[in-house]
Amino acid sequence: MSHRTRPALPGPHEASHHWLHARVAHYLGRATADLDPGAPLSRYGGESRYAFALCSELRLRLGREVHPSVVWNLDSVDAIARHLDLV
């Protein structure tokens, strides 16, 4: 009889980073696979209004305010995740 092991579920930080990556891709109108999480978001264009919408979602998810300047100034999914302690 063989025992199957279940794949490890992503931890809360990994799941949150994936969520953030997917949401940024959504707002930029890109597939997640086409958005390098380490690349500057300015490379992909987008408008400042996505920062406000993303920050609103982050507030609901994290239970704390996230100012849009975090998105504008950090300018990559990885940098935003590190700042918000999602990694």
Automatic annotation (TrEMBL):
Presence of keyword Oxidoreductase: no
Residues annotated as domain Polyketide synthase-like phosphopantetheine-binding: 17-87
SUPFAM superfamilies the UniProt entry points to: ACP-like (SSF47336)
InterPro entries: ACP-like_sf, PKS_PP-bd, PP-bd_ACP
The entry's keywords: Phosphopantetheine, Phosphoprotein
Keyword Phosphoprotein: yes
UniProt cross-references to Gene3D superfamilies, sorted A to Z: ACP-like
Protein name stated in the entry: Polyketide synthase-like phosphopantetheine-binding domain-containing protein
